[in-house]
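The authors assume throughout that readers already know how a fold can be written as discrete tokens. For illustration, here is how one protein appears when written out as sequence plus structure tokens.
>
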Amino acid sequence: MSSFVLVHGAWYGGWCWTRVAQRLRDTGHDVFTPTLSGLGEQPEPGAEAIDLRTHAEDVLKVLVEYDLEDVVLVGHSYGGLVVREAADSLPDYVQELVLIDAWAGIDGQSLDSLAPAFFKAWIDSATSGGLIAVPPASSVGVVDPQQAAWLEDRLRPQPRLTFSQRTSLSGAVEDIPCRAILCTPHGPMPFAEFAQAFGWPTTEIASGHDVMTLAPDQLAELLLNP
């Protein structure tokens, strides 16, 4: 059995994977859902100093401390940048990368440099004190009032440096098998373009961007059966 390490995106925490993780565990897999630094339930002093490198190190700690092997390393949205940087550092631990509606770039790129102009402008307008304010649930496709209230109560401000710091990749990550899961209909973010540029095989799922909330069973099935 593989070990799944599920890495959330910006503003989220490991809690977002609860239903997906349970489905994977029910099939006998070990599943880890770390919450990245600065995004826990309680405010963290100095969160504005947390950057992409910190988050990659969070993932590396899980791989090393649990001595994991044959890892399926999954990144959602911003988590795509995190898992690629982590996998580049310890490629022998990772069997496969799975990027879900995720950001991805080459060495030296950042989310800032990859983002469309309108999103970069929103990021700048929403930033105060080194933290990016929580966006509305509707921006990730969650429109049901109860689901939206549940989600927005759990989201946390995102450290701005995580979007501006450039990736540091040796190239080792490109030798790890990778596939992309894309939410459809495609929104304004260039996730499909990233997958095409890297030549990754892709699978589509009919869901808004927050697929963990909107379609957890279908997502788990795609993780188990490409």
Observations:
- Residues 59 and 65 are 10 Å apart (CA to CA).
- The chain has a mean pLDDT of 96.
- The radius of gyration is 16 Å.
